[in-house]
Model the fold of this input.
Amino acid sequence: MLSLFFSLSQKLSGQYKVTMILNTPSIGNNADNKYFLSTETNSWKSGDTLYMFKNINGQLILSFIYNSKYFIQCKVNRGDNRKYECSSDGYGIANRLFEVKSDTTFTLTVQGWTDLIEKKHTASKNVKILFDSLSVKSLNTTKQISVYLPPTYKKSKKRYPVIYMNDGEGLFDQAYTDNGKEWKLDEALDSLNQKGKGEFIIIGISSGENRFAEYSPYATKKLKEPKGKDYLSFIISDLIPYVNKKFRTKTGPENTSIGGSSMGGLISFFAALEFPNVFGSAAVFSPAYWNSISKDSLKKEILYKSQSLKSKIFFYGGGAEGIQNLPNTLKEFQYSLSRNRKIKTFLIVNEEGMHQEKYWTEPFKQFVLWHQKN
Done:
């Protein structure tokens, strides 16, 4: 009777027994491997022994009582945040989503592991890795730094303007992305350069686990210690001097731009407002203005600083991004900036544009062409 009462109490409170059976690919499987589940329930922790699959009669099985939301979001890992399940070609996959309304058994089949599949490189010959893992002490992290040099760089003695791009791992090479999606900026610039246009040096700066903090200029309820200014200080104090010394660059704010998408777009816009003597222009793609604190703070920044600026600000937004009516926000910012005739702005809205890499390639080409003309 007591066990029946406990079982009934579980059902009434939304507690259900979930059993997961794991099938894994032959690659990377041996007696030493241990498999774990990371979920919202355990804050996406890797190697959580409370969620470790056990070998029971030749099957990898995990059972637990679920008492949370209606759905389970999860992924399988091998005890390390670099060893997660992925697609068969090595790229990240969406979180698994399971509906739980009763005691349930699910079967999970892993296609591959992120650390064991060699990805195909797609960067053009004009892209090089400057630093595979550059130590940035002020951010307590490392950065991959890549560079795109125009095809004419080796054949001439010209100097070139520079664009510093955030989320550098997604700009040129599919192999460095988590999801297999890239901007294809090297191909886009190669096509322009063949026509004698868009000759810029591009510096790609990778993001990482602290991306949200590094690209956040303002504190929020969830983020008490933003690292946006520390991140920009690294670019200004360390990276720009190195690039100017190593390559034939045109210097000064009129030849130094910063750009990015989403949170990378947000920090780029902030950089142009906060450090106009360094970044004379910004390419702001699909900026993450869904945070009301960032949006309201940027409005104040524009109000206080725009009258003293002489900058170029390029905006792009998609109508299908679902970011609190992004195009209208960009129009509002553009209008506020346009009150100062010394500031040049340009806005592109793609009503069908989504928050994805493939929608940012063409606007980037438009940015470099617009930058050269203005």
Remarks:
- Residues 15-113 form a domain with the Immunoglobulin-like fold (CATH 2.60.40.10).
- The two ends are 81 Å apart (CA to CA).
- Helices lie at 2-12, 185-193, 211-214, 228-246, 263-274, 292-305, 326-337, 361-373.
- The chain is about 25% helix and 25% strand.
